[in-house]
Amino acid sequence: MRIARFTTGDDPRYALVEGEPGQEQLVVITGDPIYTPVQPTGEHVPLDRDDVRLLAPVIPRSKVVGVGRNYADHAAELGNEVPSSPLLFLKPNTSVIGPDDPIVLPPWSEDVHHEAELAVVIGKVTKDVSPEQALTRVFGYTVANDVTARDVQRSDAQWTRAKGFDGSCPLGPWIVPGLDVDDLAVLCRVNGTTTQDGRTRDLVFDVATLVSYISEVFTLLPGDVILTGTPAGVGPVRHGDVVECEVEDIGVLRNPVIRRV
């Protein structure tokens, strides 16, 4: 099952995505599926209809929790050690944008990088959950791009500016509940050229461990998002680029990059 959030020019709605690539239909459902049972309304909307726009599949009501250096090869490429426990940071919900929304490069950074990631969407209020029970608190999974101002990350003592600016958290194209994420490909392409090609089996801390650990620090609320880390191959994005982040069995998140003059 794939769950999308979309608009046809009116208020955002939710739908199941059915059909093969290029022939998808949006089967409209009532309410927000994180909070209410999935119930189709009977309305079907072709995904390729001109007035259809996919939105970020979730807007976190409280927070996006990032995890740094959670692939050993990525830690090594930036000259860092693998942390002994998950390295956490926060991104505000104002950083979230959706499929095909532009990543606007901040004027105070000259070195902005892409970071393709598997993202976890929380479905239930979660506090102090054990790793064994952690996945029962997950609603589903989507694709994220943890866009990072690398020069600012190096210069600032904390990562708030580098990773929290507006548009630094593209999410999409939809949420897939009930997915086995133990060994999925995580890729990034810039202008069609593959720059990142990793697998979730190489996560230093797996999803259950992350949900449990984070829930010891913060109460996780329905709709909160956890970014699980990025594999090696991160690199710069520039004005005019098109970035595609992909997670196997979920889909492709595409965003153009612009710098406003």
From TrEMBL:
Keywords: Isomerase, Metal-binding. Residues 63-257 form the Fumarylacetoacetase-like C-terminal domain. It comes from Actinotalea ferrariae CF5-4. One of its GO terms (biological process) is carboxylic acid metabolic process. One of its GO terms (molecular function) is isomerase activity. The keyword Metal-binding applies. Residues 1-57 form the Rv2993c-like N-terminal domain. This is 2-hydroxyhepta-2,4-diene-1,7-dioate isomerase. It holds the Pfam family FAA_hydrolase.
